[in-house]
Amino acid sequence: MTATTLAHSVVEPSGRSKGIAGTVIVVYAVISMVPLVWIFLTAFKSPSDSIAYPPKIVFHPTLDGTCNLFTTISRQTADYISSLPPPANVCDKIARARNMVVAGPSNFVPRFLNSLIISFGSTALSVVLGVTAAYAFSRFRVPAKDDLLFFILSTRMMPPIAVAIPIYLMYRELGLSDTHLGMILLYSAVNVSLAVWLLKGFIDEIPREYEEAALVDGYTRLQAFRKVVLPQATTGIVATAIFCLIFAWNEYAFATLLTSGQAQTAPPFIPIIIGEGGQDWPAVAAATTLFLLPILVFTVLLRKNLLRGITFGAVRK
Amino acid sequence: MSEHGLSIMEHVARATPETVARRVRGLSDRAIQWLFISPTILLLLAINIFPLVWTIRLSFTNYRANRPNARLLEIGIANYVSVLTDPDVWAAMQSTAHFLFWTIFLQTSIGFGLAWLVDRRFRGHGFWTTVILIPMMLSPAVVGNFWTFLYQPQIGLWNYALQFLTGIPASSFSMIGSVKLAPWSIIIVDTWMWTPYVMLICLAGLRSIPDYLYEAAEVDRASKWRQFDMVNLLTNGGPGSTTELASITLKREAFEKWRTGYSSAFAIILFVTVFGLANIYVKVLNRVKNR
Prior knowledge:
The complex is a heterodimer. Helices cover about 70% and strands about 5% of the residues of chain A. Chain A is mostly helical. Chain A has 3 domains: about 1-40; about 45-105, no CATH class; about 110-310, MetI-like fold (Orthogonal Bundle). In chain A, strand 3 (about 275) and strand 4 form a beta hairpin. Residues about 1-10 and about 310-315 of chain A have low confidence and may be disordered. Chain B is mostly helical. Chain B has 2 domains: about 1-60; about 80-290, Orthogonal Bundle (MetI-like fold), CATH 1.10.3720.10. In chain B, helix 12 runs antiparallel to helix 13 (about 260-290). The longest helix of chain B is centred in the middle third of the chain and has 32 residues, at about 85-120. The model of chain B is unreliable at about 1-5 (pLDDT under 50). The chains are: A mainly alpha, B mainly alpha. Chains A and B meet through helix 2, helix 7, helix 8, helix 9 and helix 10 of A and helix 3, helix 5, helix 6, helix 7 and helix 8 of B.
């Protein structure tokens, strides 16, 4: 605090304006977190607590939702249940208390794995394509450069449903329907436009002198690209990867239209988790929480890059 | 193509003096240039442009994807005429305009305000900025689905919080069941989700970021109408068709009524409209920024 009050220059905001700004931001952040906290709390409620009126803030936490998310259960007679060996785990126990038995694992884990494979796969591909294309656009006199760049950006304005049916027909011909590869290519095609534009911005800021020095030292262009430009562009690459990952991880329209079993990701799956008599909100909440986790961890681990990449880092002198 | 480039380069390398040969060792700049650009262009041609051309082609036919063996008729611009004369389409356009106007207005003003405040760089601004960003990391579909729960009149948190704050009884209104409130229910969720994104863009603007980043982000935002996930799962167009945005109508025509030709024409009209609007938007933005 002393450090901030000492710095009382024109460029540095005063302590009081900082205090007010900080308070408003914290209040906004807390309010905007309420729905998320509610999702998190609901994940640990019993189904009846989750739909209690008035909404329960204090409740007895259970694993009902988590168990319903990971298992499929079926109703059985009391006689049959009492004839079974003692419950093997907590989910067994919860199910039997409600006259149910665990019939097997649910589809959540395979869907989640599909999400991991497809989103990280497409993020890697978009970033590789993006950084190479961005480098070429940044450093070489590409013919019709502006037109090509605009073409690349304009593909992003295409509504997914406009191309979904032809893609569906095309993928069926090529044997790409409902495959990981098909979805990785598709998401990369959507993301690569943004990747090229973002990364071109970052690479433009890297002084050419660095590479030229390397070329004079006997590096080939490819070596200079790999050993000089890529390390300098790390911040931009990470920021781009975060944006690509967020899109691919959360994409719903194509996933629901083009995949059915094999390669279906989690977003089309989570909203259709049904319990007894309607949507099983604790299970949905548990799925939502778990589904947010990888993105959150990835972003928090790399947040310095994201914030610097978007706000400070692009101007690197 | 790269192989061809390579062999030429070998010839050139052999015929040139030692020092020049060292500079072109491996691949020439020109070969690298195309090696680096062509995969991206090819991917976009295969998965964006080719299907788009196909859609244009289908938009002049009576094709229905659920009856692939039916006789295909060329019907000229009939699909375009029926889209543009369909009152439902105009209603959807109106809902979309209402939705876009309010979400852009709210997100821009709140997002800019937040960015301006974060730019004061108070203690812990990095941490709180990250917290504010979290809603935009969520899946719109999953979020839309969960907000149907938050908006439940009796048991939902939203109505309960409003009752707590204003005294209006929680069970006296339904955000997604009422014709009047439903359009606002999707505006609220969209604003909650995407204001952080606008804040990021504004932060970039406040800190003089290269135009490329700015333009890419803006175009990205201008084309966000194409996302229908959240609305699809939150209200699915209802009640009546009060929240039936153009993208929802499009989905209904394409995948519920299976009018592929008609929906293709509609999709092309939307794409052209958005393309035009986004162009104007970016131009105006640049003019404002340069002032």
